[in-house]
Design brief:
Layout lengths: L8 H18 L10 E3 L5 E3 H17 L4 E4 L12 E8 L1 H5 L6 E8 L2 E9 L4 E6 L3 E4 L2 E2 L12 E3 L8 H9 L3 E3 L3 H9 L5 E8 H4 L2 H7 L3 E3 L13 E7 L4 H8 L2
Parallel strand pairs: 3-4, 10-11, 10-12
Antiparallel strand pairs: 1-2, 4-5, 5-6, 6-7, 7-8, 8-9, 12-14, 13-14
Helix pairs in contact: 1-2, 4-8
Length: 260
C-alpha cells in the first residue's frame, strides 16, 4: 500500500498560528469573576470565550481555505467542496476554564482523503503548543517530542478527563492492572502523553472534536491512539467516541484492563 503523502509544513504552521491566535483571545475571559456561563441543550457549559474563539478560527480558515469543510463545537458545519476538513474545539475543558484552572486547551485538526493530516493542542494559559503533521513529526513549541519508554503498568501514569462517567468495571480494571491514576484531563492530558510526561490517557466517552487532533499527534510522537476496544476512532461524522492514547508499549495492557 502506498503511504499517505506528508502534510505541507506551511499548512501545519498556519494551523498552529490560527489556533494560538484563538487561544490568546480566550485569555481575555480567563479567570474573570464576571464570566457568564450558559448551558447548552446537551447540558454542557459554554462561554463567550468559546464562541469568540471558534468564530476567529472559522473566519481565518474561510479566508485562507474557502473550499474546505469546517466542523466545530459551537456552530453549524460549513460544507466545502475540497477533500479537506477542519475540526475545531475552541475550548476543550470549558469547566476548567470557567473555574480559572489553566489546563484548558484549544484544539484543531485537519483531515484529508487519506485520513488525519494535522493536529494541534494549544494550552494558552501555560504557554505550550503541541502539534504534528503527517510525516513531519510531533513538536512542543518547535522542539521534537516523543512518547515515554515506560513499559510496566506500575511505572506508568494513566490519566483521564474525569472518572465520574467511567463504567465501574473499566475503572476497577485499570486500577487492578497497577496503573497510577491521575486526572490531568482534556487536551492537556493527551499533550502530556505525546511529550512523554505521562503514559496513557483514556476517555470512555467524548465528543469527536475533543480528540480529533490526537490520531496524528500520537502517531507522529511514536504512540498509539484507538477507541477503548482497540479499534480505530471514527472521524467520519460520529459525534460521540471513546479514546485511548498511550506510548504504545502499554497500549494492549490498557485495552485489556478496560475490558474488565
Amino acid at each position: 500500500m502506498t503511504p499517505a503523502p506528508p502534510a505541507d509544513p506551511a499548512l501545519l504552521d498556519e494551523a498552529v498560528d490560527i489556533l494560538q491566535a484563538a487561544g490568546t483571545l480566550t485569555l481575555r475571559w480567563f479567570d474573570r469573576a464576571d464570566l457568564a456561563i450558559d448551558t447548552k441543550s446537551d447540558g454542557t457549559p459554554v462561554t463567550e470565550a468559546d464562541r469568540a474563539a471558534e468564530r476567529l478560527v472559522r473566519e481565518r480558515l474561510a479566508a485562507a481555505y474557502p473550499n474546505d469543510t469546517i466542523r466545530g463545537e459551537e456552530e453549524d458545519d460549513h460544507i466545502g467542496t475540497s477533500s479537506r476538513t477542519w475540526i475545531v474545539d475552541p475550548i476543550d475543558g470549558t469547566k476548567a476554564f470557567a473555574r480559572g484552572i489553566p489546563l484548558y486547551s484549544n484544539l484543531l485538526a485537519v483531515l484529508d482523503e487519506h485520513g488525519p493530516l494535522v493536529g494541534v493542542i494549544n494550552l494558552p494559559a501555560v504557554g505550550i503548543t503541541v502539534y504534528a503533521g503527517r510525516g513531519l513529526g510531533c513538536f512542543r513549541d518547535g522542539v521534537p517530542v516523543h512518547v515515554s519508554g515506560r513499559a510496566m503498568a506500575a511505572d506508568c501514569v494513566l490519566s483521564s478527563s474525569g472518572f465520574t462517567n467511567w463504567p465501574e468495571p473499566m475503572l476497577l480494571g485499570v486500577k487492578r492492572a497497577g496503573f497510577q491514576l491521575r486526572t490531568w484531563g482534556d487536551g492537556y492530558g493527551y499533550a502530556m502523553v505525546a511529550c512523554g510526561a505521562i503514559d496513557a490517557m483514556v476517555d470512555p466517552e467524548v465528543s469527536l472534536w475533543d480528540v480529533a487532533p490526537m490520531p496524528v499527534i500520537m502517531s507522529e510522537a511514536g504512540g498509539r491512539f484507538t477507541a477503548t476496544d482497540g479499534t480505530p476512532v471514527p472521524l467520519d461524522g460520529s459525534t460521540r467516541v471513546s479514546a485511548v492514547a498511550t506510548n504504545g508499549l502499554v497500549h494492549d495492557a490498557v485495552i485489556t484492563a478496560l475490558a474488565g
